Fold:
Amino acid sequence: MADMQKNVEQLNSFLRGEISAVETYRQAIESLKTSSLGAPLAECKLSHEQRVAILTEEIRKLGGTPAESSGAWGSFAKLVQGGADVLGEKSAIAALEEGEDHGNADYKRDVPKLDGDVRAVIEQRVVPLQVRSHAQMSALKKQLS
Structure:
């Protein structure tokens, strides 16, 4: 029981981060709607939405209740992205890439804390999506530099 609860808590932590990412990408897409960056931003947003769905499913499989909001991370992400929006495209992409860095660090640090099957699902289905969206934002940031 304790292991299941530990897994649910960790998955919910990941889920809150992914919900925050979706919110942040949505805000960036809205603020940069006249930009040519809409397609790659929409692709990354969709990737984070897929992770939200996977994490929600895994939490339910464990009998847990999935987080419904991003919590404190969402407020922080909105603040960072809001400041970047005022400063323009380059700053918005830099903020998104920083968020992807944070996601990479979270998964790298915390996936090993998960048990067996749950860990395998996250390593095989979620982490590759995270790696790809991070690479996309890093490439976009370099392109705009």
The mean pLDDT is 88. The chain has one domain: 2-144. Residues 84 and 121 are 34 Å apart (CA to CA).
